Amino acid sequence: MDTRVIFLLAAEGIFAFLLLYGSGVLKKPGAVVAAALLLTAAFYLRGLALDHQTLDYTDFLAKWVDYFADNGGFAGLKGSIGNYNIPYLYFLAWFSYSDIGSLYLIKLLSIFFDVILAWAAMLLAGLTVKKPGQKLGCFFAVLFLPTVFLNGAYWGQCDSIYAAFAVLSVYLALSKRPWGAVVCAALSFAFKLQAVFVLPVFAAFLFSGRVKLRHLLAFPAAYVAAVLPAVALGRPFMETLTLYLDQAGSVGGALNYNSSSIFSILENADDAAWWAKLAILWAFLFVLAVLLVLFLRRRRADDRALLAAAVLFAAAVPFLLPHMHDRYFFCADVLSVVLAMTVPDLFPAAVLVQFGSLLGYHAYLKGRFLMPMRWGGWAMAAAVLILLAVLLVRLGKSGRHVKT
Predict the structure, then answer these.
(1) Per-residue pLDDT for 297 more than 50?
(2) Are the C-beta atoms of 191 and 161 separated by less than 8 Å?
(3) DSSP annotation of 402
(4) Which SS3 state, helix, strand or coil, does residue 324 take?
């Protein structure tokens, strides 16, 4: 491995330590030592995974970087390449200028956002838990979460980017910084369409007064700002705005792709087109029903209830929808850990989500099923029911109303 890669990985580890130090959770010598040791372990494990190549890298990501190298780097953004949105392509174009292997640069980018994701999760948990040790526990629980480690360092995927912005958006909304919350939500969406699994919670933020209608104007503004550099380089403006619509037909016709969705349980759904339409309808009705309850009980929607709603949407929407892939529960993986750190009784729900998610990872990365995917589907269904029950109980509690 190139020594420059080792240096960059070490630099990310140092950045993570400084981020923790600046967050005020390393006030005691014991915390400093523990953080240093755990960060060393986390980055050592990631270093061991850097050489691994998957077909996603060799068949797609590597070729996209080569495309930019052959077409003038950033100048290549004017053309249509890949099935990722523009902001991620900026990084691939940037990597094309380096003689460091693109495999390492792609993974180092994801590892950097692993750190941002863990930090965002710690901030979100810190709205409820106040002890530095508990906050550190949340940071490292996310950093060592199997799907977080495997997604970026081993697989070379970039889900930590959109998830980091999604978690930050929830944190900023609950900490009464609505403009920043909406901007982060827009950036999450700009990197990955899967951000829509979490975005329904912004309706609840609206009901409960955390976000006002005027703040929502920041969403299109931030999204347009994110794609404007590509437009300036020659990419058609309308093409950048409608990229997700153009990609809608490329998700595939199968009802399930190694995902612990409801279609891992409904294995005999023969008419895929009919079942897909039905699934979209029931997912829409589920979100609508939850939002209706949140609206009716908006004065009782405290931070824990709204966090539970965010986790519920992140888990339930991909569980109910058709055409879901193995990595689509990534936000649910992380947010369920944050919720479990604030409500320890919900630890089983976080385990169920991680179990269901990991089965899909194993199926892709190993090319075989560890066990039938329906086991993951039942685990995810149980997690969704637990989260729904927790939300309803939280909203049904008597006591002081939340000011809206």
Answers:
(1) yes
(2) yes
(3) P
(4) strand
